[in-house]
Amino acid sequence: MSRTLLMVGTRKGLWLGTSDEARTSWEWTGPHFPMEEVYSVMVDTRGDTPRLLAGASSSWLGPQVWRSDDLGATWGETPNGAARFPEDTGATLARVWQLQPGLSADGGDGVVWAGTEPGAVFRSTDRGETFSLVRGLWDHPHRAEWNEGFGGQAFHTILPHPSDPQRVLVALSTGGVYVTSDGGETWDPSNTGIKAEFFPGERNYPEFGQCVHKVARDAVDPERLYLQNHGGVYRSDDGGASWQDIAPGLPTEFGFAMVAHPHRADTAYNFPITGAEARWPVEGCARVYRTTDAGASWEPLGGGALPDGYFTAVMRDAMCADDHDQVGLYFGGRNGGVWASPDEGSTWQEIHKDLPDVLVVRAAQVG
Questions:
Q1: With 70 as the cut, is the pLDDT of residue 225 above it?
Q2: Is residue 1 scored above 70 in pLDDT?
Q3: Which listed site, 23, 44, 142, 158, has its alpha carbon 20 to 30 Å from 15?
Q4: CB–CB of 38/56 below 8 Å?
Q5: Which DSSP symbol is given to 1?
Q6: Average of pLDDT values for 82-96?
Q7: Are 260 and 218 in contact (CB under 8 A)?
Q8: DSSP string, 50-90
């Protein structure tokens, strides 16, 4: 019977949960990296041995990408940091917001992408031990006009194409969606149809500058994407070239998280938040919403199981799905509670409580 690993990154360290295939009883270790912000984690199951990566930021020593090849029993780091800006940029790494496995042109399994604050993307070819700055994006003429979101300026979404190593989609707050079709040498904005409600008048739909919160890729159609914006929920059917509104059916168009089902077409999950001025679920009722028709309709999950009186937020990377045949769903709140469903949202239980502010959750089968 396979084991399931759940990584929970918080404002004050990393917790690791393990369970069997049933995913109803969990054992925990932590905190790993106590008192460090853990904004990004990754479970890399491509090699013979699973590798865990964690982007942790120490207020004393700065940010680091840690790695473990024994499911968190021990951790290694790269001297002087796995990801560092070249001296000529004049930039200093503040946080690693995203870690994502990628494809290699030679078919290897070493590529890992990292999104950072300040807004930049790095690429590793050795499973996260060292990273190099993607200069084509850093030197982009738009960069001078990118701004900071409420939590800082960061590339929080990186979506490598599942079959073409030259194609990658990224998103940042605040700047919008960018795509490359040449492995990162050049990048184009890809925001047609996405609103920037904070810009005046005719600038509501700019070429770039949107505050995109999260993007997810459909499991079956790689050209289909789901996007949660700062005010707006969208779908693209052409790899991000254009976007259409799919917010109707949700109780609000504001939120942070967007997760695609890992196996099933046209299926995605969203955690609606009242708005920028009230960052908790509508009427304080925690609900995960699911679409099974690519956003034509949405249904709430968790009524009677997920809490009411839930006046906290679920952040952009604090919701995920595992890779079981019957998919498990997970989310963590800024109140430190972690909730799980082993059956695609039919039933829910709180599997950990009273953690620090949850920033990221990731889950996978690990053998």
A1: yes
A2: no
A3: 158
A4: yes
A5: -
A6: 95
A7: yes
A8: -EEEEEEEETTTEEEEEEESSTTSS-B--TT-SS---GGG-
